[in-house]
Design the sequence.
């Protein structure tokens, strides 16, 4: 083990000893990759989840409204905010679950998207408009494309699709920005005894409500079933907007994999980008 790794383990152990004295802990890294430094810790009394460098107020609010697992402790160590969260057991939903539970899914998403307190916590820039938000998203995406050296992003087909993405952005109907989950894939959704929970809220932000709704529908729900979702969710089903946010996210994921030299996964999400 490296000195850095042992140092991290010691820090986690010291935090646990401070809050839960006289327990013996097994400390492990989560199986699934997460964007923040995280640990699954186990004692004779059960499992907990420790995560560093988090947006504590947002996570506390998500737990309060019941869409994320309960948070037992939030504090700061060496200038770094951290939380200790209850480890919730559950199963991942499959496509059949999504098909059979569209009303429950719509209700769940509305809980966090329409929560005024959560929106207030996330609204750091009170002057940020919908167009400002889009411009920022495209600026970040363009930089990632320019920085990438893969031939995947140098083809005529890609250039045409990227031009369409930019052009169609100006046609998106402006709406109020709401809290959204940045990566609503099925492995971040848990079906528990307490109902639906979402995990890995690290990059929660204010955005278009179709930013996470669109991805869930595109990835897991047949298009013929989308109207059933919106009958419960409310609002107008804007397929062009859904596809725009899917294309934007698929390209971002493709670039993420490309930066890590995983050409197969990058190509897979790039196909999704072109399809959207």
Sequence:
């Amino acid at each position: 083990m490296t000195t850095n790794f042992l140092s991290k383990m010691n820090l986690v152990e010291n935090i646990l000893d401070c809050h839960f004295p006289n327990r013996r802990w097994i400390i492990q890294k989560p199986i699934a990759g997460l964007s923040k430094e995280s640990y699954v810790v186990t004692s004779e009394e059960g499992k907990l989840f420790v995560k560093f460098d988090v947006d504590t107020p947002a996570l506390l609010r998500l737990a309060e409204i019941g869409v994320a697992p309960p948070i037992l402790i939030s504090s700061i160590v060496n200038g770094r905010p951290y939380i200790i969260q209850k480890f919730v057991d559950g199963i991942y939903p499959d496509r059949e679950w999504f098909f059979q539970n569209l009303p429950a899914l719509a209700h769940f998403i509305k809980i966090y998207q329409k929560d005024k307190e959560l929106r207030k916590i996330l609204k750091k820039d009170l002057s940020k408009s919908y167009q400002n938000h889009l411009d920022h998203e495209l600026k970040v995406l363009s930089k990632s494309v320019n920085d990438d050296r893969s031939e995947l992003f140098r083809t005529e087909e890609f250039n045409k699709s990227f031009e369409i993405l930019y052009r169609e952005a100006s046609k998106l109907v402006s709406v109020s920005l709401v809290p959204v989950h940045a990566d609503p894939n099925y492995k971040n959704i848990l079906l528990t005894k307490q109902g639906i929970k979402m995990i890995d809220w690290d990059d929660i932000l204010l955005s278009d409500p179709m930013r996470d709704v669109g991805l869930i529908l595109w990835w897991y729900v047949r298009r013929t079933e989308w109207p059933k979702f919106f009958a419960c969710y409310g609002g107008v089903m804007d397929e062009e907007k859904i596809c725009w946010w899917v294309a934007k996210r698929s390209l971002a994921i493709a670039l993420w994999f490309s930066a890590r030299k995983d050409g197969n996964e990058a190509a897979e999400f790039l196909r999704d980008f072109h399809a959207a």
Remarks:
- The first strand starts at residue 26 and ends at 28.
- The radius of gyration is 20 Å.
- The first helix runs from residue 3 to 19.
- The mean pLDDT is 93.
